[in-house]
Every structure is written in structure tokens, then in C-alpha cells.
């Protein structure tokens, strides 16, 4: 809970800094857009899982809205809201040999604030970023729903400027810090994922 409060405070500070900024050159400083991409889930059990349980990770899809506010020539803040369709589950082998599947974080709403560092004086600018991410599950599993997660995102990207918009493919790793598990058959589960995201901002 303290971590979630910290993230909310960080987002509020970011919005406060934005509201106090000068309105001059707003069109160049503030941009909006959308993104889409694929992600690969990485579900990790930090304790020894039961002998009849196995973890399964696979590709998923994500889609979201992006804002980019330029603080300086090298620093910008990018709030993002994305819907992530994850593809990871736990398979339990029953005594008769059949499988019982339990999805973990099948769909989530991800709210993140990325701090982006790049050189904006070229039409093709590499950059790196990091920032907090809150993942709110939209789970259909009512028996063992997934917990909300708090993660730290970091990654690299390449910003290409076109006439009317910027195209920025980026590789992002999201490191989950909280236990997302509510299944009594397991102790703890951490949810990580790696994403290839294409941002369109103008």
C-alpha cells in the first residue's frame, strides 16, 4: 500500500509541475497520441511451487493512450494508460491426469509515468526511460482474482520525427514488485513482462 501511495504522489507531483509550467510553446511541448504492441508475460514463483503445478507464459497484446510533455531538451514526462491482454497461467495436474488452468492477470489496465531522456536535436533520436507502473487487473476469475500490482518500467527506444507525428518503437521491461497471487495452492507470484511497443505521437 505504501508503494501504491508513493506512485500516486509521484503522478500528482508530475501533474503539478505540468500545471505550473509556462503556456509558451505549448504546442511543441505537449503532444498526444496512441500506442500498440505485443508483450510476453513472465510469471515467476519465488517459492517452490507444488509438484502438480507448472507456469505457462506466452505472447499477449496491448493498446493505449500516450501523452508527452517536454520539460527540457533532454527530458520529457510521458503518462500512459494502456489495456494489456496478458497470456500467462498456472496449470494444475489432477490425479486423473487432466489439467486445471488458472489464469493470472489475463487483462489489466496499466497506468504509468515514464521519464524519458533523449536528444531532441535530431530527426532520429535514441532514448531511454524509467518510471512507475500500476497494473489493475480486470479478471474474470472470481474464485481466485489477481491482486493489483506495482511495477517499475525501464527500457530503450528510438524516436523518428515525421512531418505530422513522431513514431517511436520501444522495448520495455516491467518488473513487478508485489505478490499478485490469491490462489491458496501457491505462496507468491510476481508478474513481469517484456513489451515491444509502437508509439504514435503528434
List keywords for this structure.
single chain, 202 residues, mainly beta, eight-stranded antiparallel beta barrel, three-stranded antiparallel β-sheet, 2 helices, 57% strand, elongated
What does this structure look like?
It is a single chain. With 202 residues, this protein is mostly beta strands. It has helices at residues 2-20, 26-29, and strands spanning 30-44, 53-57, 59-70, 75-85, 88-93, 99-103, 107-118, 124-137, 149-161, 166-176, 190-201. The protein has a single domain, classed as Beta Barrel (Porin), CATH 2.40.160. It contains two helices and eleven strands; from the N terminus they run H-H-E-E-E-E-E-E-E-E-E-E-E. The strands form two sheets. It has an eight-stranded antiparallel β-barrel. A three-stranded antiparallel sheet has the order 2-5-6, with no helix packed on it. The chain starts with a helix and ends with a strand. Residues 14-27 have low confidence and may be disordered.
Instruction: List low-pLDDT spans.
Output: 14-27
- CATH architecture level-2 label: Beta Barrel
Number of separate domains: 1
- Radius of gyration (Å): 19 Å
Q: Mind telling me the CATH class?
A: Mainly Beta
The residue-averaged pLDDT reads 84
Q: Judging from the principal axes of the Cα atoms, what is the shape?
A: elongated
